[in-house]
Amino acid sequence: MPLSSQASALALDVRNLRFRWTPEQPLLCFPDIQLAAGEHLFIHGPSGTGKSTFLSLLAGMLSPDSGTIQMLGNDIHQARAGARDRFRADHVGVIFQQFNLVPYLTAEANVTLPCRLSARRRAATVTSPTDEAHRLLAALTIPADHWHRKVTRLSIGQQQRVAAARALIGSPELILADEPTSALDSDNRDRFLDLLLTLAEERNSSVLFVSHDRTLAPHFHHQIALQGTSS
Ligand SMILES: Nc1ncnc2c1ncn2[C@@H]1O[C@H](COP(=O)(O)OP(=O)(O)OP(=O)(O)O)[C@@H](O)[C@H]1O
């Protein structure tokens, strides 16, 4: 059965999630989460507690050993891989720790990429993917003369903002962000977070943001600590 978005469902409902990379490694235990539409959640934990692993499980890129993940009312790990990929393309924007931009594409082409992979995201742009990419790049303070440069010719902070624009385009219901501010000084980091969360709010996108840096917590509606492992 294809996955669908159910208007009344939570953006994210995570219960009893556990994962072990290999039999020799400790079991990673994750907190239960219920995230409503438009809410912003901050998850913090020291290095190695499993923040990136958690996001990979939520994004459907890893399968849990136990527990459930419901997104918009769908149990994503009950679906076949193809349906899961389609659901992610349609409903989830991801900002990776290393940005994962396509190096040979321009900033604009990187931002419009989700609209090429998802008719739903394309249809959700107000006029066209290119117009929305320009609006997002301008809102995220990327100068217009940089929009047609290859992303590798942009600064790290600019690349990070391009990655944010790519996650926001087409108004996905959920944005997952993995410590994307670690390369920035504190002023730029706060400015980036304010922009990201304001743009997410305009789109009613829920945000789940992980970082080791607890000083970021006041930007968010809710916060949870990741405890890490159990034997
Ligand atoms: N691909 C992998 N194969 C095996 N073990 C892994 C892999 N990726 C992560 N781990 C292990 O899983 C645990 C959690 O790692 P993870 O990267 O999720 O933590 P993190 O909190 O995101 O760390 P950081 O803040 O340093 O990015 C660590 O013990 C790590 O060594």
Automatic annotation (TrEMBL):
Gene Ontology MF: a single term: ATP hydrolysis activity
Record's GO cellular component terms: plasma membrane
Domain of life: Bacteria
SUPFAM superfamilies: P-loop containing nucleoside triphosphate hydrolases
Lineage, uppermost ranks: Bacteria, Pseudomonadati, Pseudomonadota, Gammaproteobacteria, Pseudomonadales
Name of the protein in its database record: Putative ABC transport system ATP-binding protein
Entry-linked PANTHER family: ATP-BINDING COMPONENT OF ABC TRANSPORTER-RELATED, IMPORT ATP-BINDING PROTEIN
UniProt signal peptide: none
Residue ranges of domain ABC transporter in the record: 12-231
Keywords from the named record: ATP-binding, Nucleotide-binding, Transport
InterPro entries: AAA+_ATPase, ABC_transporter-like_ATP-bd, ABC_transpr_LolD-like, MacB-like_ATP-bd, P-loop_NTPase
Source organism (scientific name): Marinobacter mobilis
Gene3D superfamilies: P-loop containing nucleotide triphosphate hydrolases
Pfam families documented for this protein: ABC_tran
